[in-house]
Amino acid sequence: MENLYILLAVFVALELYETTWQKSKTFFGLIEKNLYFYKKGIFTYLSMNPTFFYTIFLIFGMGYDEFWMLSIFVLKFVDILFRLYIMQKISNNEDLEILLSSDMQMNLFLRYFNVVIYPSLFLISTF
Asked: pTM to 2 decimals?
């Protein structure tokens, strides 16, 4: 059980790290911060998303392969792919008007939602 608390604390800490470096008042600002690391290199960008790799570790290394844990992996994978798709379009100077027609304000709920939902789903997957 203590092991579970440690794994959960690491998950929360990594989510807080990701939330902190992506912190922005708008969605476009969030994409700009992601684009900064993407331009440094794909491996640099991927290393700025440690919870994705932590999720892989929990699934394959620790054996937490329940439905909710796999859903965390899929959500994180799709999230990274979507951001990579947007940044590739920006790098190619393509029009994103259809995809991102208006800028969205990022309130506290949206900013810290991942810190609550992903560790909660991890806890649910352990029972």
From this structure: 0.87
